[in-house]
Write a structure and sequence with these properties.
The protein is an alpha+beta fold and 478 residues long. 27% of the residues lie in helices and 28% in strands. Strands 1, 2, 8, 9, 10, 11, 19 and 20 form an eight-stranded mixed sheet that branches. The protein is globular, with a radius of gyration of 23 Å. The chain binds flavin-adenine dinucleotide (FAD). Flavin-adenine dinucleotide binds next to helix 1, strand 2, strand 9 and helix 7.
């Protein structure tokens, strides 16, 4: 272990811990990322990156690294229903979901960290966490040798079984698993005609998506055996048999690289903050992976916490700003629980009543307005944080909405998109036309970039100014 003291310790180098580390480094914070795995995993649980997560990566100029490798798909699903969710009408550079294996997402984030001279400490198993009034202390073993490390703050991004959450004594409320699904990343001799296949009938449910490397991910639930213990070995034979029974024909599954089972245990940390300790990602919320949300919500947790923690450590804001992390993200975790429980009910019961309910909900989602609402909820585009953090001036209707990447012309004549102006991870105030500069701002002005705009986007008509948070949400519009 290279140091005995740092500013922030992050336990876990999954996508959430890595996103947080990138955010903190951007502000120049010293961070140690401790990861028990000696090497990056090649297995990819997540495949879907939602448009809002890409947009947030774009706030730091990173989105194109991801879009260059992934495959965009303009629709997503809710409970595998026939009416797919349409993202194409969202006012965003990324009105789609991107298929990109989680291993690539983690690699790209780690590369970004290396550019900032942060190397993950691998083989570091954290075993104990303590906090006092001045800081936190973690200890454990690194490559078999004991270590301890002190910091001002600690983030548990250590997944669903989070040791940090347990040692901080934060209850993980929710419901136990009721069912399990079987999945495999396989080659198909007879792939389906459409790129994505979702079937649910009296025999069970089946989903197939291409992985981009010639393989498909096949996920099934057998109506005859809905709850198989996670300890029972997952086999290619079972996956083939169940998918054939549901589809009515054999896809010729062979050469699996990964076979696994996952369940629907659904839990939410009661508190996202306990003094100097924070939880983010799966450490704070677990659920049935339906609709491709866990990693996305976790990375968005990271984008909410990172700049706040950096601002407090830099002395730009009081410690109380950190309470807004729980206030803003816990309700998002609750909504995630609700929608994944609802999807589980629709996806894992195969009686005539539930099949009829599926058809009814699918019909509703064929209505464009309902479809847009569900698509914006699942993708994160629809999220609002209604309480302003820095300024209560202005029109309440704008507060908390995401700022789209509208094109502006600055007073010096430069044409630029709003998102590019947030690359430094600072607050942004745009004064439009002859309007005066920034409104009352509750934090250190050194944390604010104030610019004059000659020509605003048409959507900003009637505004004199707009104050945008480092994570791209509007705090105030006057
Ligand atoms: C089949 C499946 C498909 C999924 N598909 C999607 C999808 O398409 N889209 C989506 O958004 N989500 C999806 N998810 C969910 C997604 O994989 C998780 O939400 C995501 O991995 C959470 O990231 P994380 O960084 O919070 O935790 P993790 O990825 O679990 O990372 C935690 C890290 O902490 C490390 N760690 C744990 N304990 C310690 C310790 N004591 N000391 C040091 N290190 C430790 C672990 O080794 C690990 O590397 C899917 C999940 C499954 C099971």
């Amino acid at each position: 272990m290279y140091n005995t003291h740092t500013e922030v310790i992050i336990v876990g180098a999954g996508p959430v811990g890595l996103t947080l580390a990138c955010e903190l480094r951007l502000a120049g914070i010293h961070v140690a990322v401790l990861e028990r795995r000696a090497e990056r995993t090649t297995q990819s649980r997540a495949l879907t990156i939602h448009g809002r997560t890409l947009e947030m990566l774009g706030l730091r100029g990173l989105d194109q690294r991801f879009t260059a490798l992934g495959k965009p798909l303009s629709s997503g699903h809710f409970a595998g229903l026939d009416s797919r969710l349409d993202f194409s009408s969202v006012d965003s550079p990324h009105p789609y979901t991107l298929f990109l294996p989680q291993s690539s997402t983690e690699r790209l984030l780690e590369e970004r960290l290396l550019e900032e001279d942060v190397a993950i400490v691998r083989g570091a198993l954290v075993g104990q966490v303590q906090q006092d009034a001045h800081g936190v202390m973690v200890s454990g073993t690194c490559e078999g040798e004991p270590f301890s490390l002190r910091a001002q703050y600690l983030i548990g991004a250590d997944g669903g079984h989070s040791l940090v959450r347990q040692q901080a004594d934060i209850p993980f409320d929710g419901v136990a698993a009721t069912c399990s699904m079987l999945m495999g990343d396989v080659l198909l001799r007879h792939p389906p005609a459409s790129p994505v296949l979702a079937l649910t009938n009296a025999a069970g449910s089946l989903m197939m998506v291409p992985l981009g490397d010639g393989r498909h991910r096949v996920i099934v639930m057998n109506a005859q055996r809905p709850h198989v213990a996670a300890t029972e070995a997952a086999t290619l034979e079972e996956l083939s048999q169940v998918s054939t029974a549901i589809a009515g024909h054999d896809f010729g599954l062979h050469d699996p690289v990964w076979l696994s089972r996952f369940g629907d245990e659904t839990r939410l940390a009661r508190r996202y903050r306990q003094g100097r300790i924070f939880l983010a990602g799966d450490a704070a919320h677990i659920h049935m992976p339906a609709g491709g949300q866990g990693m996305n919500v976790g990375m968005q947790d990271a984008m909410n916490l990172g700049w706040k923690l950096a601002g407090v450590l830099k002395g730009h804001a009081p410690d109380s700003l950190l309470d807004s992390y729980h206030a803003e993200r816990h309700p998002v975790g609750q909504a995630l629980q609700h929608n994944t429980l609802a999807q589980t009910a629709l996806l894992t019961r195969f009686d005539p009543h539930t099949l009829a309910l599926r058809a009814a909900v699918s019909d509703m989602l064929a209505q464009p307005e309902l479809n847009r609402k569900m698509a914006s909820d699942l993708s994160g585009f629809g999220l609002r944080y209604p309480a302003p953090l820095a300024s209560s001036a202005g029109h309440a209707g704008w507060t908390g909405r995401r700022a789209p990447d509208w094109l502006l012309r600055l007073a010096d004549g430069t044409a630029v998109g709003i998102h590019e102006l947030l690359h430094a991870g600072k607050w942004l105030h745009l004064a439009i036309g002859d309007a005066p500069g920034a409104p009352p701002f509750g934090f250190d002005r050194a944390w604010l970039t104030a610019l004059k705009v000659r020509t605003a986007a048409p959507q900003m008509a009637g505004l004199a100014g707009i104050l945008i948070r480092p994570d791209g949400y509007i705090d105030a519009a006057t």
